[in-house]
């Protein structure tokens, strides 16, 4: 990229001199300015202000006073906060690979063209992308509610006994199920598009050499779409660590199933909006952002060391 | 293109597959399709029931009087002070419409700036913008609320619309679209003819990137339509709620034992919430797909 820019600059310098090239390039900054202004106002300013807020403490008596890192100490020593962090990490470790594996399986067999009606399936699988998480969670809550939910009833009819999908052991798998329902199709669509961009000659050559379908998919195609897989791992992980909508709606149906700090985002929301402790909530939001940032940067570093990222 | 299409179905024997394998794969795909469609089928069926039947009858079949029209009509009323669904629908249309149009305009301008100019620091700026993709939205909503509380944007529709006009994915898409569909030579020729820079953008770049603009518009409509956390935090008056927050508030009061018939509103409201987007998606599927394609190139 940089090399191209340098070459372009040299070409321009040869063609008409430096002054001319400056005249041609400066409008770019003006085209970008409106977006940069909004990004600054609605992303940078709030972030800085949140950090500032997190350093103060508000009391009914005595007003707002500077308290340094006291709020951070409270957050970092809060069992509820770390409980939530541990839960979303466990959630991400299970949900992200399962979602991407299912998505890749379907993308690969649809790409190979061995399933009849694959166009229909691709459309159906992508539909949940258009369903808000709130509505998805409401539907699944009704389907799984103990006592009358049809899926719970079907389970009972099949002799699985009374399954309580909202019990403390099953609540996390239940949320994983809902998130898989929501996002597998989106992941599949991206992987399918990547697979389609592999030249047909590659597949033909492999077939001629007698490679089996599964070998072609796993040892030839999968490595070629690895950049897309890596990107999806990042997007899914960042999303999983912010888990909020699904547990908060399930909590509306079965309040005892979802605790105050079930996920870090719920901890932030309940602390700030629920309890009105905005300074503490801001500190928790900053810690959460740092944890997600550290995981993202760490992931990049590992991939880079393995030479899988340019 | 026609070659591509003929490649869609490769004869299974070429892979050395037995016919049974393709049958098994089709069955697996059908089961997963059932898993995906199940909740939506449930939603349609139960939008026709009254509150008692939602709980008492089997979820995957019709029961009792057909009450779909009464349920939908109730969406225009304020049942037990929970708020009016139709108002939320209007709010969502406003937030998603204005927000997405704004995001598309800003993304088109910025995408053009990044694609066709290389001013000092433009590369660093671009990667800086892309890095904000990793900033967790939920950690940003509370900070936004804190700033809004200072500048009086709490319970203001602009507090919802303005941040929705920032779309990093939109910039990435527009940059890629413009790089592939607006020839540099055309821009140079227009400059030699004496066209202004903004005139070139408006009369040459924009008409050539209409499919790209549509894709960005659709993706941002979906993003704002489905946004829950930000409106949840910045709105405390239920006449400003979008659909997501309104339905969530109903689901909370429907389950905390109020006597009012809120469950039919929750279910038929859910149906009305997802229908427009699903129809939009089915009609304009190829533009959504184009978005996914560009997404795959970022890896």
Structural description of this entry:
- The complex is a heterodimer of chains A (310) and B (299).
- With 310 residues, chain A is mainly alpha-helical.
- Helix content of chain A is 75%, strand content 3%.
- Chain A folds into 2 domains: 2-46, no CATH class; 73-305, MetI-like fold.
- Chain A is built from 15 helices and 2 strands.
- Chain A has a two-stranded antiparallel ribbon with strand order 1-2.
- The longest helix of chain A is centred in the first third of the chain and has 34 residues, at 79-112.
- Residues 13-23 of chain A have low confidence and may be disordered.
- Chain B has helices at residues 2-6, 19-46, 51-56, 68-74, 85-116, 122-131, 137-151, 157-164, 168-181, 184-192, 197-208, 210-226, 229-234, 243-255, 263-283, 285-297.
- Chain B is 72% helix and 0% strand.
- Chain B has 2 domains: 2-74, no CATH class; 83-297, MetI-like (MetI-like fold, Orthogonal Bundle), CATH 1.10.3720.
- Chain B has 299 residues and is an all-alpha fold.
- Chains A and B meet through helix 1, helix 3, helix 5, helix 6 and helix 7 of A and helix 2, helix 3, helix 5, helix 6 and helix 7 of B.
Summarize the structure in short:
The complex is a heterodimer of chains A (310) and B (299). Chain A has helices at residues 2-16, 18-25, 27-54, 70-76, 79-112, 118-126, 133-144, 150-157, 171-196, 200-208, 213-224, 226-241, 245-253, 264-274, 278-305; strands at residues 56-59, 63-66.
